[in-house]
Amino acid sequence: MKKYISKTILGLSATLLMASCAETSSNDTNSENTSKPVEQTESKKENNGLAMAFYYQDSIATQFGFYKEIDSILKVKEMNFQRELEAKYRAYQAYEADIQKKMENNEITGYQIDGIQQTAMEKQQSIQQFEQQRGAALQRESMDYQTNLMNKIAQAGKEFANKNDIDLLFFYQKGGQITFINDAYDVTDDFIKYLNKREEELMSGFEEEVEAMQNEESDQ
């Protein structure tokens, strides 16, 4: 169970949603200035009528402050769960050791055995129930955090693309579906700067949105 939960919670490096990008008017004189990579994507548009760009997913995970904060929150939640679970196991082991010691000292009579066995079974079931129920709840909570974060990045990606006249914005990740992209299309640094600049705005109301998602799930 521990390994399964860990893989789920620490999987913030999992594939984020691809930000689809709307068209913007080329006559918008108020568009923000962009760095060289974005300008290169615009020059590509002159050749094929379609402006494309990409960002490195791994860089988002390590350089976007909000992403790292959510990862830290989920790690703390998992560690708290693991500590509580381990404490329950230690308490049960102490109970078993105490019973074993009493049996060796002939402090337990025959008619007490059935009650002791029943108590031991109930303690085991309680631990298993905690591990399953709390573990599953933690898994769902982690997924809600990740989904909301992906939505935030996707929306920011759409807005970033609109501002820079990009028609298609992809993410690149080793082992992903895209094998190779020319570095001329790389806007990673610009996108990360854009995300960090809007970090407070993206964080605003995040916990409330996650809670709303959880309430919606519980009503279904």
Commentary on this structure:
The protein has 220 residues and is mainly alpha-helical. It has one domain (16-23, 33-212). It contains eight helices and two strands; from the N terminus they run H-H-E-H-H-H-E-H-H-H. It has a two-stranded parallel sheet with strand order 1-2. Helix 1 packs parallel to helix 5 (113-163) and helix 4 packs antiparallel against helix 5 (113-163).
Key structural traits:
single chain, 220 residues, mainly alpha, two-stranded parallel sheet, 67% helix, 5% strand
Query: Can you count the beta strands?
Result: 2
Work out the count of structural domains: 1
- The rounded Rg comes to 26 Å
Main sheet properties: 2 strands, parallel
Helix content: 55-70%
In short:
This protein has helices at residues 2-9, 36-48, 57-63, 65-104, 113-163, 188-197, 199-203, 206-219; strands at residues 52-56, 168-172. With 220 residues, the chain is mainly alpha-helical. Residues 24-44 are annotated as: Disordered.
Question: What does the secondary structure layout of this molecule look like, with pairings?
Answer:
Layout: H1 2-9, H2 36-48, E1 52-56, H3 57-63, H4 65-104, H5 113-163, E2 168-172, H6 188-197, H7 199-203, H8 206-219
Parallel strand pairs: 1-2
Helix pairs in contact: 1-4, 1-5, 4-5, 5-8
GO molecular function: unfolded protein binding
Protein name: OmpH family outer membrane protein
Region (Disordered): 24-44
